[in-house]
Amino acid sequence: MAAIRANEEFCIGCRLCEVACMAQHSACKDLVKALRPGRPRPLPGTVVEWEGHRSVSISCRHCEDAPCVTACLTGAMHHREDGRVEVDREQCVGCWTCVLVCPYGAIRRGEDGHVASKCDFCPGRERPACVEACPNRALTLEVEA
Amino acid sequence: MRERQTFTLREGRAHLPADNMHYRPLNELVHAAVARGATHLRVSGVNGQRYLADGLRGDLALEIEGVPGNDLAAFMDGPSVEVFGNAQDGIGNTMNSGLVVVHGSAGDVIGYGMRGGTILIRDHAGYRVGIHMKEYAGSRPTIVVGGRAGAFLGEYMAGGLIVVLGLGAGDRPLVGDFCGTGMHGGTIAVRGRLEEAHVSPHVRVSEATDEDRALLAPQLEAYAERFEVPLALLEDERYWMLRPASNRPYGNKYAI
Amino acid sequence: MTTYTPLRSYLPPRFRVYRDDARCIRCRACETQCSFGAQRYDEEDDLLLADDGQCVGCHRCEALCPTRALRIEPNPSAYRENANWTSRDIRNLNRQAETGGVLLSGMGNDRPYPIYWDHLLLDASQVTNPSIDPLREPMELRTYLGSKPDRLEFADGRLATALEPQLMLEMPVMFSAISYGAINLNVCKALAMAASQMGIRWNTGEGGLHEDLYRYGQSAIVQVASGRFGVHLDYLETASAIEIKIGQGAKPGIGGHLPGEKVNEAVSATRMIPVGSDALSPAPQHDIYSIEDLRLLIFALKEATRYTKPVSVKIAAVHNCAAIASGIARAGADIIAIDGFRGGTGAAPTMIRDNVGIPIEFALAAVDSRLREEGIRNRVSLVVGGGIRCSADVVKAIALGADACYLATAALIAIGCTLCQQCPTGKCAWGIATNDPLLARRINPEVAAERLVNLLTGWEMEIKEMLGGMGINAIESLRGNRLRLRAIGLTDRELDILGVLPAGQ
């Protein structure tokens, strides 16, 4: 299963990964239209975190033995057929146990207050939007040889 | 073309007669001896051959009888070189470590860009001694001049120690003009008397404190022992310490 | 007691930041990327605001803005037109009035002096001498730099003459000296990686060789400059060649000065000077006061490295460089590198950068002619640099007599430099001319190396095309072959010095 590798050595903190993720997960996908100030925008699935001069973009690792899947009270958090970890929006009750349990802090409380929000590995795209948008290859796609 | 000279190595020691050889075959002989495991080499009859001991490394003692040519011990890293005679210009250029001893006077541009090790000169030295010496992390180069030194002593010094003892100087000044111009690190010590007119405004002069004297003590002892001079003669005198006035002597120069 | 506030500047901003608010999505990338403090996000009003006075026109924000909402332009608010007193002059006078200091600039001479490469045209074969298609036939770009013997002797069908050490290049270009400290380790790594991959060389400049770069030693030319920073036996022995730096095109006659702000732990360790102190490279090298002294240093280096590596001497292109080059060749150098007045730098006094030195085209022609006249051209290889912008410049330089070209500014532009000339501040927003770890990480060596390899690969193909077009299949047939050049728009005197015929003849 391919994975996103975040290289903290070369992250420049520009947050274009976040922008690309939000655009990708909005209805119209056009960067300017989707992210117009004042218009509601989706939460990004990857977030840049800082410490001093160092930064790195953190997103869900789609763990094989995902703690969030184990901890989920309703079974909303599950593995898709392709191995990715996904939230079933209907089933999620917003208890936030997954938020607590994720060792990477990669899950956030959805803005609607109800559904957990995290990276879905951009289904339908050859390469996740964040990886394509990163100007410095701080996010790369590791594929199996 | 002379036939290549050979030498005999006994317990790591060999004698190489320089014998009017051009410097290139002479240096090849020296390197060949070192490659065969020499630890003590005596080179006799030296008469101006250049580049002796250049780029030599490791645990090696080289004795030079005669007057070596320019650039003795340049880029040297570790060996000790003892010259029984005067020496010329360019000794210890960018030397990294090791020891050079001159039983006589030396020429100009001694220890340029020196990074470590020690040079001891019994008598006088010429111009431009100790330019851009630098020190870092425990490696501190030292030059001791027994007599006088010429103009531009310690110019652009970034680290290290130069000591001028003034023995046999008579009435003449111990250091020449422009001493310490552009100095931004390191220390110069002058024994006895110092004409401040010779000292660059980049330098501040102070009389040696007990701490300074402790710094100088090993160098004075080394000189006294090597050249058989009474230590008391060196110690019973005031010393003037020259240090940079700023580590950024050209700090305010630019319109940024 | 009266206290005084610092002098207020009367200067308007040099650049204006235009933001199309309809396109701005408040992502704040411009804010994080600007290292000069020209972009700011106002939380309360949810707006990105610009402080034009801080903008230096580096275009980093513009390049990274995901919606292309930004436009950086020279400030249109202009002084009254004055051909004698331009805005540049007015700015410089004001800055000196405010600070009392020496004007300092980064990168190379940007004044509108004539560019002689643009007055030289290349030949092409037609009819009588068929051209060669590089896609069908092999083309030899391989170049050997080093001293060539006066004659070759053979015995039993083999070469009997002993050759001096040579540098083999797969194409006739190398990366010129850019010191570690002026640029950061990521850029050095990129240059080293690209040079290794393309079979050419990179030059350490006078900052020494960082321990992480020793693995690229085989493709390195190490520099021995007046400060002797980082010069020790391992440094000399790991390299493929040693270059004695006498001068550089951006600042002939004066020394170098790396400000204390740029001397961090790693730079301090590599150069062996205390953290925060200025790294001063005096002019001249104080052990070289004559050509005889230069010979001494050349041979001290050869002796120290047992004659296994070529020794190069780098000079700036100045008035009498032909005579100087002749002296250098006779002093035992294997390579002479000449840096023209367009050469770049991390910092040079503006007056020196813009007014001292001569164009590399003339220096090259003069030196090549002089060495040939004296019958000693074979003793050295000539490498020229100073504003080599494209593969056509390289081909013209070789036709004028060069063995290879040195590139530096072109390489930095390839990895992002926009020539904003703020290098001396150490705040390069592109992460090139800075050691600030926050900024230096903007150069990912793999990305930068890929860009450099792309650049050289493109140039390599173009050089082959131009050679093939001339009916030549080996670069050595072009070397010094001035008959393959024609000039346009030059005076008779200039034609004479360049040794080139006018177009039409």
Note down, in words, how this protein is organized.
The complex is a heterotrimer of chains A (145), B (256) and C (505). Chain A has 145 residues and is α+β, with helices and mostly antiparallel strands. Chain A has 5 helices and 8 strands; from the N terminus they run βααββαββαββαβ. Chain B has 256 residues and is an alpha/beta fold. In chain B, helix 1 (23-35) links the parallel strand 1 and strand 2 (40-47). The model of chain B has no long low-confidence stretch (mean pLDDT 93). Chain B has an 11-stranded mixed β-sheet, with helices on both faces. Chain C contains 15 helices and 23 strands.
List keywords for this structure.
heterotrimer; B: 256 residues; alpha/beta; Pectate Lyase C-like; eleven-stranded mixed sheet; 11 strands; globular; C: 505 residues; Alpha-Beta Plaits; TIM Barrel; 2 domains; three-stranded mixed sheet
**Roughly what fraction of the amino acids of chain B lie in strands?**
25-35%
What's the CATH class label of the domain at 105-244 in chain B?
Mainly Beta
- Which stretches of chain B are low in confidence, meaning pLDDT under 50 for 5 or more residues running? none
Radius of gyration of CA atoms of chain B, rounded to a whole number: 19 Å
> Helix/strand/pairing class of chain B, anyone?
alpha/beta
Largest interface: B-C, 48 and 43 residues
Which class of the largest domain in chain C in CATH terms? Alpha Beta
Topology diagram in text:
The complex is a heterotrimer of chains A (145), B (256) and C (505).
Chain A: E1 3-6, H1 16-24, H2 31-34, E2 46-51, E3 54-59, H3 67-71, E4 77-79, E5 85-87, H4 97-101, E6 108-109, E7 116-117, H5 129-133, E8 139-142
Antiparallel strand pairs in A: 1-8, 2-3, 4-5, 6-7
Chain B: E1 13-17, H1 23-35, E2 40-47, E3 61-67, E4 77-84, E5 97-102, E6 118-121, E7 142-145, E8 158-164, E9 185-191, E10 203-207, H2 210-227, H3 231-235, E11 239-244
Parallel strand pairs in B: 1-2, 2-3, 3-4, 4-5, 5-6, 6-7, 7-8, 8-9
Antiparallel strand pairs in B: 9-11, 10-11
Chain C: E1 15-19, H1 29-33, E2 39-42, E3 47-50, H2 60-64, E4 70-74, H3 87-99, E5 104-105, E6 120-122, E7 143-145, E8 154-155, E9 158-159, E10 167-169, E11 173-175, H4 185-198, E12 202-203, E13 220-224, H5 233-238, E14 241-245, E15 256-258, H6 265-271, E16 279-281, H7 291-304, E17 311-316, H8 321-330, E18 335-339, E19 348-349, H9 350-355, H10 360-373, E20 381-385, H11 391-400, E21 404-407, H12 409-414, H13 437-440, H14 445-469, E22 485-487, H15 492-498, E23 501-502
Parallel strand pairs in C: 11-21, 12-13, 13-14, 14-17, 17-18, 18-20, 20-21, 22-23
Antiparallel strand pairs in C: 1-4, 2-3, 5-19, 6-22, 7-10, 8-9, 15-16
Helix pairs in contact in C: 4-14, 8-10, 11-14
